[in-house]
Amino acid sequence: MQDPVPTSLCKLGRSLQDPSPTDPEPWQEKERRLRDRLRRILPIDVHRPDPLGAPLRPPADALLSAFCLEAVSPDRAAFARALAHVGSLLRPGGHALLLGALGESFYLAGAARLPVVPLAEDDVRTALTGAGFALRDFRSYAMPPALRTGVDDVDGVFFAHAQKPLEA
Ligand SMILES: C[S@@+](CC[C@H](N)C(=O)[O-])C[C@H]1O[C@@H](n2cnc3c(N)ncnc32)[C@H](O)[C@@H]1O
């Protein structure tokens, strides 16, 4: 974990707070703009080999997953399987962008303490390779003390860009 906290993440963190002199747009307005652009919301279970319950036609060009797979998987093997399941939704040559927690064992959602599988960087790389992806970029940073809020025990955050091979 050698990268500093990415500037874009700092901006995102600030943008999710209340309006400020530099970002006067309330988060509710951001939410409204995002929802306006959604065309469909599909239920998904990443633990099913067929995560949407039916093949995705046409398959997806890209997949973005943020802080999901490690938060819903009981162990590293389940994490790897979940990654392969969602990867099956991509077309050949499709891209996956993943971000997630490293070394996290729990997070608090209100009074609920939810388990997380603590991942090392190599667990993510191995799972991507095992799911048939080519790893294009991998970055991470260690959680700075200022962002340790007590709602979890996360050590750091990873960002991975991986690609499905084109069919031969
Ligand atoms: C830690 S939250 C992350 C939410 C959001 N992506 C974010 O970054 O704030 C984990 C999410 O996984 C969802 N989830 C739980 N079990 C799941 C499953 N089997 N398949 C897919 N998603 C699941 C939960 O509903 C929750 O929204």
UniProtKB/TrEMBL annotation:
Keyword annotations from UniProtKB, A to Z: Methyltransferase, S-adenosyl-L-methionine, Transferase
A GO BP entry: methylation
GO cellular component: cytosol
Stretch forming the signal peptide: none
Top-level taxon in the UniProt lineage: Eukaryota
Keyword S-adenosyl-L-methionine assigned: yes
Record-level Gene Ontology MF annotations: phenylethanolamine N-methyltransferase activity
Keyword Acyltransferase recorded: no
UniProt cross-references to PROSITE patterns, sorted A to Z: SAM_MT_NNMT_PNMT_TEMT
Spans annotated as Disordered: 1-31
Family statement drawn from the similarity comment of this UniProt entry: Belongs to the class I-like SAM-binding methyltransferase superfamily. NNMT/PNMT/TEMT family.
Annotated protein name in UniProt: Phenylethanolamine N-methyltransferase
Organism encoding this protein: Accipiter nisus (Eurasian sparrowhawk)
